[in-house]
Queue: 2 jobs
Job 1
Amino acid sequence: MSVTAPQGFVAAGVAAGLKSTGRPDVAVVVNRGPLKVGAAVFTSNRAKANPVIWSQQVIRDGTVEAIVLNAGGANCFTGAFGFQTTHETAERAAELLAVSAGDILVCSTGLIGSGDEVFRAKVLAGTEQAIAQLSAEGAEAASEAIMTTDSRPKRVVAAGDAWTIGGMAKGAGMLAPGLATMLVVLTTDAVLTPEEADAHLRHATRVSFDRLDSDGCMSTNDQVSLLVSGASGVTPDPDEFRTALTEACIALAEQLQADAEGASHDIRIVVENAASEDDAVVVGRSVARNNLFKAAIFGNDPNWGRVLAAIGTTDAAFDPYDVDVWMNGVRVCTAGGPDRPREEVDLTPRATHVLIDLKAGDASAIILTNDLTHDYVHENSAYSS
Amino acid sequence: MSVTAPQGFVAAGVAAGLKSTGRPDVAVVVNRGPLKVGAAVFTSNRAKANPVIWSQQVIRDGTVEAIVLNAGGANCFTGAFGFQTTHETAERAAELLAVSAGDILVCSTGLIGSGDEVFRAKVLAGTEQAIAQLSAEGAEAASEAIMTTDSRPKRVVAAGDAWTIGGMAKGAGMLAPGLATMLVVLTTDAVLTPEEADAHLRHATRVSFDRLDSDGCMSTNDQVSLLVSGASGVTPDPDEFRTALTEACIALAEQLQADAEGASHDIRIVVENAASEDDAVVVGRSVARNNLFKAAIFGNDPNWGRVLAAIGTTDAAFDPYDVDVWMNGVRVCTAGGPDRPREEVDLTPRATHVLIDLKAGDASAIILTNDLTHDYVHENSAYSS
């Protein structure tokens, strides 16, 4: 169900020939209302794809009727022609749905620099075809249509007090969001104003997708959208809704991590006792982006020296010679020296836990990352993506 | 010859049993004078090895008698015992050379966290043994003794106007300097004051080792030292000396790049027409640290979209939609869109050239990096280093 689990939404996913495999590649999600509230956050990469540039305008008034998504081409760095493709996609959807093109979000994913006449024709045809097939049962196909190197679709449903949140996501590489990440569509039938939707979404993405750093590479096409139908007629308790939305985003972020390209370990880096949450994030991210650390985890090697060498490059407040590092429950480093023997650490499970105690305050953060593997190198060198 | 090419220097390299292979692992370089001038730059990583902490004190007065270097153990995060090991190493060398321990630089390289009683005993014995074998012919053995995962020693000799510069270096991984990098010893018989030596060395390292970013991982043990004997009796032209020292450092940096762990491409990223040199460096480094770009080059894929996605994460001054990207002489991207077909780019040679024209000013910088390969993952996951 995912995005159609809340009342007031229909969806579809169709094969428009953008993927050479013939798999579904265009998805549409439509909000039937009564509310047509939308919020979205976008990649902070200055190199932005045309659909991002378009959607940033659409979201300004907080009104969204529908979202059109395609895989098989990022429509990024495709010039004026590419922007026109996005514009025409919104126009075509608006015409068929009898709404304004200015209320249609567009997302694309695939190879940067691809977006020619053939691409445009296929996206437009796919949009028409998907809109003709819209239904409450279309969520599954929609979540499959946005997949690129993903090996499986990512979906979530969270039930609140007489309201529901649904969501779908795609992403397996170039997975290191700045402000948002990847393509994610969230829906709810709770009653929210545009301002509430925006605030809840920003909070939820900040502590979920923004804490996922699989490979240090920030995408040009990231977009997380929340569509609000209000069809339940229920105004949720703000804290309860925010918590449910955050949990839904974390669940999707963990699905993205678990399906990261070539990864053999899902690494949860917990930074504790930092002077600030920002410090905790900076420290965790420095480890998540350290190729030597990531390669060591692939080799089941609890090489804590690489953790300290990574965090020493940050300007976070802590004494490098008074930091504790735990790996899978074993304290391998304390007070500037080795602690338990590295042989005690079992890194064979996929789930890997690194705890860094900075002893500098009471803030904390969790960063999710993956290891650096032969399969990652293979997937990202063997063909363009 | 390398470090003993200038007059006034002797060196030695011996096997002290620190390397399991039985290869040489302790080196000593001694300045016979008449000047005993020294300058050094160190890693900017806050996680610093004990020899770095020690040597930062030694260099304060600009006087250096000798430098002791070992491979087979980084003596980093080894606590008070480890610092005492470095101190004792300097004391032992000072005693045998009849000089002050406060004028002995110490460098170590190897696994972080290793530096126990056995390590100390071997380093001290190796220091004694090396000092007993000092000679003008010892430079070759010294350059071999500091190797870790290096497949070959790195040496340079530059002849000036009646003065000479010599140098040796080691480094193959954790190769992304902050202020200096790796272990490098430079020698000269030119006449220089401590202030001149320091200024020349800082200039030379800033545009050589500091522009090398093989794997984004900054070491805890980096140290570049310049020992000045003045034995030629010649005071060099400052510009001429600075140029020669810079060229010598670039030659060593290129040798380090060419021997980077597992690399199959030496990538020279030239950033042109930047608003400032800092901007050019930031832009070049963002590409050098992008795993997707590096994996693409390994796969001989001129994936310029990954270049733009990387530079878009920086705050350098440029318009992302008006940047030209050239790969091995072919302009693959211009004005926010594709240019020449990617098929025209031949990435099979090891030497790879990426030119990024920011069209934002007249500053430029060159960053040296390597690709991300299966061999890199293998070398850094199969065993601790």
Job 2
Amino acid sequence: MIILFGVFIRYDEESDAHWVEFRRENNITSDIENDFYFRYPSFQDVHVMIFVGFGFLMTFLKRYSFGGVGFNFLIAAFGLQWALLMQGWFHALNPETGKITIGVESLINADFCCAGSLIAYGALLGKVSPVQLLVVTLFGVTLFAVEEYIILDLLHCRDAGGSMVIHAFGGYYGLAISWVLYRPNLHQSKRLNGSVYHSDVFAMIGTLFLWMFWPSFNSAITDHGDGQHRAAINTYLALASSVLTTVAISSMSQKRGKLDMVHIQNATLAGGVAMGTAAEFMITPYGSLIVGFCTGIISTFGYLFVTPFLEKHLKLQDTCGVHNLHAMPGMLGGFIGAIVAAAADESVYSREGLINTFDFEGEFANRSVGTQGGFQAAGTCVAIAFGLVGGAIVGFILRFPIWGDPADDNCYDDEVYWEVCGSFELLQ
Amino acid sequence: MIILFGVFIRYDEESDAHWVEFRRENNITSDIENDFYFRYPSFQDVHVMIFVGFGFLMTFLKRYSFGGVGFNFLIAAFGLQWALLMQGWFHALNPETGKITIGVESLINADFCCAGSLIAYGALLGKVSPVQLLVVTLFGVTLFAVEEYIILDLLHCRDAGGSMVIHAFGGYYGLAISWVLYRPNLHQSKRLNGSVYHSDVFAMIGTLFLWMFWPSFNSAITDHGDGQHRAAINTYLALASSVLTTVAISSMSQKRGKLDMVHIQNATLAGGVAMGTAAEFMITPYGSLIVGFCTGIISTFGYLFVTPFLEKHLKLQDTCGVHNLHAMPGMLGGFIGAIVAAAADESVYSREGLINTFDFEGEFANRSVGTQGGFQAAGTCVAIAFGLVGGAIVGFILRFPIWGDPADDNCYDDEVYWEVCGSFELLQ
Amino acid sequence: MIILFGVFIRYDEESDAHWVEFRRENNITSDIENDFYFRYPSFQDVHVMIFVGFGFLMTFLKRYSFGGVGFNFLIAAFGLQWALLMQGWFHALNPETGKITIGVESLINADFCCAGSLIAYGALLGKVSPVQLLVVTLFGVTLFAVEEYIILDLLHCRDAGGSMVIHAFGGYYGLAISWVLYRPNLHQSKRLNGSVYHSDVFAMIGTLFLWMFWPSFNSAITDHGDGQHRAAINTYLALASSVLTTVAISSMSQKRGKLDMVHIQNATLAGGVAMGTAAEFMITPYGSLIVGFCTGIISTFGYLFVTPFLEKHLKLQDTCGVHNLHAMPGMLGGFIGAIVAAAADESVYSREGLINTFDFEGEFANRSVGTQGGFQAAGTCVAIAFGLVGGAIVGFILRFPIWGDPADDNCYDDEVYWEVCGSFELLQ
């Protein structure tokens, strides 16, 4: 990794000490116009989502909190280095010098790229070894960079918050791996596949940091100015709306109207996933509420009916329910983005706004919004296909008996990979 | 809600795709001058305070952590949608188009508006049902918008951090509700009205995020430039000072000098509440220290003597002690603001600074600082009156036996509203 | 403290209401160029590291979580007030008016200054009383201000993230105190010097917030523009690299390849410490990876071999292992900075970039990079000397029997200084 970085990676103009000269040549009047000040606060919010958000969301199992937060830490730290290289080769390679230049936007993209693999980890939680996770991440990041190149560069889709490239891809990638790695005797660990009171409170830390910072996630790499502003507002509204429908459905579905922590921890976030593509468009505030309203319902029903169905009939064990939180809302988000793009209109966006939002420049200058909508839908399908096929292949690689995966009666148990103390045995 | 948003809510100029044209027409040289970059980092800090800060602060009860953080999540997500509408009607309605335009400042204000109801929840924690909380929030947000309109628009007070409009109002609103809902047999749940070791550590997460981000809370909607800068510094100093006096008083009050976690979790924050109004004024750094010093003492004494007194003699059960953390320091903060405003001086502020700080423009161009001080004091009284009267009315509404509130021996118990696991019974 | 603030401390130009005039006189075109918008997001990240990061990192002991997070809160809140005064006297005293002016950069520096004492607390955790901690902080902040003045102003070193002035100083300061306060009978509390499952999860909150926000820590007070941008990138890479080597070494060192939570909680951060000085230099991305790679290894080996060695042969009890996380990586970071500075080159930095980065202006205009490297190395030695000598003196002061320190069999126990509830006894 160090050698590859040595050969390829350099600072970009805005983080290089030559910035003073670059600034003068480009008539930039002030240091505050360095991209750092546009994006660094959003970067830190995304960073918190990746490490604390995803990490603590996966601490809910009674005896797998170390593995949830610790392996999340490991694979994100590994994935982001590999992502800087892979995304650099596909997006930022300077053909003259053969170098990749990185700045704060590259760091955000690297974090996004890890998110795909972390989502896949959600489906595998407790059933794989850390070495297997590194393999999942290695291939996951590579596949991500390729599908992102196809969707964003070749098909010229817009996908600021990654409904397609992150959530739909990551979700189906994890599900396909989990399907290949099906364990018929997993019921031997059934007693550990649940939470204790305080592990659920830890998981709420993850939920809340994901929920709060999702507007930053969806706006982090959108256009400067109104693009970032609008994406944040839309995501904020969709998320608020998801919470209400999740609570309502969760309460109605249980006998005596009790709420289920699993729904509150997960389905409340579905609105943010589904707004990933459309957040930067002029979807209108009430459009955002409608998206959040519907995905909250769909995601909660997913936890109630789809996950048990998948496990029973499709032999697919999905520990965190990534199907309901990422795969399905991500796919929906991709199609919502296609519809909103196809419905875009110069009277709503203004001529210049339309060009800025969809980046209709260069070879794409004459593309119509209808065509753009079609390409957005095609992009969603590409993401799902990459997830399913790539996941199946990686799953078969992981079935070689060399990776040290846990036995069927040792799943969901930190004792296999961590030094634990005496009182650990009391957690059941 | 979706219909109301559809009819009324639109993006403002800075989040609309027409921004490119707006920027050109208004001679704005760079995207970085979009209000998003002035306020978004502060917005995210406030957002963390509302959801993680308030939420985790209320996890301290041994068997009500789900309810503390979960219902906080629910009512904040509901409240902010309603707040965008209510505040829009009173503050941001364009009389020509009949539309409300929203931007990042609206989101901050919506979060502020929820804070009032969340403070009220602190007094009611463990004794009401989620449906009752939604009613509290519905009326709380509505009352908030009205009193805010009277105080900020009609009386033209300044109240950047909301000592008056948020803390004094929210505190007395919650206390009045709690007083009406007095439960004479609450002692039947007494064994659950306390903490276990780890629930106190969870509550410290809330305390620390509130404490750290309070400078952002008080500076989030102040004037660009020196206003935000000064408000953050003043709040930072007042909070630091509160911590020291809280620890000192807490230690002196207990036998053998031991510290009480309840004081550390709550009274350390009183300095931020009391600086809510005066933070943007030239109160001077040592003035901030004095405010923090005094409120730390008053708030800790409140926990030691006033809360037991209220419960015993006024029949007022205040679970989190919002009287000591919000109501009293908020009221003090309002009067401190009045004094500092009345003492403002051109030699300290400069002529232009005075106009900017107090917004002496338009019909208020000739108001003197003395008059401004009087109006600030009047605003504080308005906030308290709204809280007490509004809270009493809402309390009576909540006494109808249709809301599913818990029985006297089931208070402070998550089992009533949440699915809990087996080990839950061990928490006592 | 209030009196001292009243005599000395004033707002600086950018936080004073005279800012409108100052802006006009200095041809600043927009409010966004107020230093607040350059630094406030970084300040809040640093603030989170000090209070949540350091605080929760020290909650890992099974029965000392209150003390870990609570006393951290106390001494940081005390230290930052004292730091504003001490650093002001040495750095920001206006000789004409006799006043210290403060702005957002002063707040960041005050937080940095506290960090030195909090690091020292890590070595003393569980073995000292809160009064002793206040003494440690009082002297720690004072010594910090003096050594910082010598290193940054007299020797004209660059040390943006404080490898020398914060980590090397703070680490050796704590170790020297702990060495003087050696307790031969500490084994009587041995049963409490360990973690339970959930206390380790709490500590991960601290680890992750430190890890995520370290790029902000190292970039918070670097030059506007490219300086902040580059420092953040370098630190991000070094940290990611540390995580991988820490996991690898931790797994290899244990029988059956199990991971040790102590390593994951601490050694993963060593890369950030070691990049403290060099982060703003053109160390190149692969240089950052190399630094993180090496310090991850060294720090983990420290936990495995050096800490037990120190305890056994040097009679030095280091509760949190600050030697491995702060002292040694900080010292290394200082020397790495010296080497990178000595190797600086106009072709890499450009003439202007070199002047900006090393601040070769005024009396230092003719200093060569080689000389600068020598001074950087000298600065590191000054920091270590201040830590060791200052710590020894403070240690002897703390041996007077007037400070209420816990008995040998009451160490690591919250019951001595906190009111605790009944279930506390079960934690073992």
